[in-house]
Amino acid sequence: GLDKGIKRLSELNMLLACALLVCVIAAGPTLLIFNSYVENLGNYLQTMFQRSLYLKVYEEGDAWLGDWTIFYWAWWVSWSPFVGMFIARISRGRTIREFVLGVLLVPSLVSFLWFTAFGNSALFLELAGNGVGIAAAVSENMPVALFKLLENLPLAEVTSLMAIVLVVTF
After folding, report:
1. DSSP-based three-state secondary structure for 145
2. N or C: less crowded end of the chain, CB within 10 Å?
3. What pLDDT does residue 131 have?
4. How far apart are CA 20 and CA 104, in angstroms?
5. How far apart are CA 53 and CA 65, in angstroms?
6. Cα 43 to Cα 70: distance, rounded to the nearest angstrom
7. 74 burial type by CB count under 10 A (0-12 exposed, 13-18 middle, 19+ buried)
8. pLDDT tens digits for range 34-44
9. CA distance 131 to 66
10. What global pTM score does this model have?
């Protein structure tokens, strides 16, 4: 049925995403990724409040930051009732500790690891000066940048196929 099919697709998605993340961490600059993870978390926690309220009000000619920040505030405020109902429904019967871990902490920490692994791997390859052209790929066609990164790591065919399946199923 639909319930079991969606559940299996979600589980396959998570397994593929975890496998792709492990491949990038293992094949990329592993030590740099883990060191950057700690530093990125620290930087985020240190500047979170300041950056969330910074709109460049007193600087002329740069309205993008203010518009962008306010747009995302409005977006999440408008979606919060739906997200809240969804999370309440899937969290039924769970303790507060399980809720906080499963909804707030673990997804945030995994997202930080994901962005750090892919972002720092791309930066490492680009700054190494091997002519990989990830920055140029981002400028030309952003979705291609992921595949440009993966082609510079071992098992490029396998990881690119995994990425394609993830893009389709997500």
Report:
1. helix
2. N
3. 62
4. 23
5. 11
6. 22
7. exposed
8. 999 999 999 99
9. 36
10. 0.82
DSSP reduced 3-state for 49: helix
**pLDDT digits over 138-155, tens only?**
888 888 889 999 998 899
According to the model, what pLDDT value does residue 160 have? 94
Q: What is the C-alpha separation between 100 and 136, in angstroms, rounded? A: 40
Residue 133: strand, helix, or coil = coil
Residues 37/113, Cβ–Cβ less than 8 Å? yes
**Cα–Cα separations (whole angstroms), residue 19 to 15, 25, 98, 115, 151:** 6, 10, 25, 15, 16
Residue 1 confidence class, pLDDT cut points 50, 70, 90: low
Identify the three-state secondary structure at position 58: coil
* Residue 41 pLDDT: 95
Q: Which residues contact 138 (CB under 8 A, 6 or more apart)?
A: 145
Contact 104, 112 (CB under 8 A): no
